[in-house]
Design brief:
Layout (H helix, E strand, L loop, with lengths): L1 E3 L7 H15 L4 H5 L7 E8 L2 E15 L2 E13 L8 H13 L5 E6 L13 E2 L3 E6 L12 E2 L5 H12 L8 E3 L3 H10 L5 E4 L4 E8 L2 E8 L6 H8 L6 E4 L11 E4 L6 E5 L19
């Protein structure tokens, strides 16, 4: 068995093996993302291969963050997986140690999101939990339904896909408290696999808006634009008569004096950071949902 670097993405047999493992463990497939050209060199896989099959993997995503207005180079660890037949052999430990040693001098911090079954694993590598928050805004009035003023995007249409790529390349971070300046690849993964029914283009703001309505609650996931958008004005385009409350899946800088804040839901993945340093003093924040690897 050997650790194989990320360049296997262009080798069909290894990429197919990686996809089989990711579907088995997470139920996700990276093939459409690859075929669209969105799997770039900012997403790097480090895998253990046995009998020409990928049996364990730890990936890193190179991230440019804005934290309290300061630029940070970060590496987000994700797609940590081991084939069920090879668990208990320390393969994830081996890969984690390799990744941390390899990238230690290339970034200001590492971070990752972990589910409740592996919360004891990451502290062994110097990671500390950092509490995120949820931001909600109660709406005092319900504007008329204006969804028809938005253009629904279809990722299968080349012109729509090209629009998404163009706007991602010049976007402003959604937040200066905790924002991302370079998540083109991750956003495209979500656009293809998770939020393809939630993508809209606003001609009013020349912005891509990712949202969906769940009863009286509107989930606002992201706003892609090369300038700052007036969030309250945006509501007139995306809320309906039924909307009573908005949940922001990022830190809504403009509305921090109007929103109410709650700890992140206990069922959500937990954020781990290394090194912890001064990040423990951050005010309430939420890492943009569409930047989770």
């Amino acid at each position: 068995m050997m650790i194989h670097s990320y360049d296997f993405k262009d080798r069909d047999e290894y990429r197919a093996s990686f996809n089989r493992l990711s579907k088995l463990v997470f139920g996700i497939d990276f093939e459409a993302w690859y075929q669209k050209g969105a799997w770039d060199d900012r997403y790097n896989c480090h895998s253990i291969i046995a009998d020409n099959q990928i049996i364990a993997n730890v990936s890193v995503s190179k991230m440019d963050l804005v934290i309290n207005g300061e630029s940070k180079r970060a590496l987000q660890i994700g797609t940590v997986m081991t084939h069920p037949q090879h668990r208990g052999k320390g393969l994830s430990k081996q890969l984690m140690e390799y990744v941390l040693e390899t990238y230690e001098d290339t970034c200001d911090l590492f971070y990752l999101f972990a589910n409740s079954t592996v919360l004891d694993f990451y502290p062994k590598f110097g990671f500390t939990t950092l509490l995120e928050n949820q931001f909600y805004l109660n709406l005092s009035s319900q504007p008329k339904d204006k969804l028809n003023l938005l253009d629904k995007l279809d990722v299968s249409k080349e012109e729509h896909w090209n629009l998404i790529k163009r706007m991602l390349s010049s976007r402003k971070p959604i937040s200066k408290h905790f924002g991302i300046t370079s998540n083109e690849g991750l956003f495209q993964f979500y656009a293809l696999n998770v939020f393809h029914e939630c993508l809209y283009y606003s001609r009013t703001d020349d912005a891509i808006i990712v949202f969906n309505q769940d009863g009286e609650l509107l989930h606002l996931y992201d706003v892609i634009c090369d300038k700052q958008i007036d969030m309250e004005a945006l509501f007139s385009q995306i809320t309906t008569k039924q909307t009573r409350k908005v949940q922001f899946h990022f830190t809504p800088d403009q509305l921090l004096d109007k929103v109410y804040v709650e700890p992140i839901d206990k069922h959500e993945d937990v954020l781990f950071i290394r090194p912890f340093s001064d990040l423990g003093n951050l005010p309430a924040f939420c890492i943009p949902k569409l930047a989770h690897a």
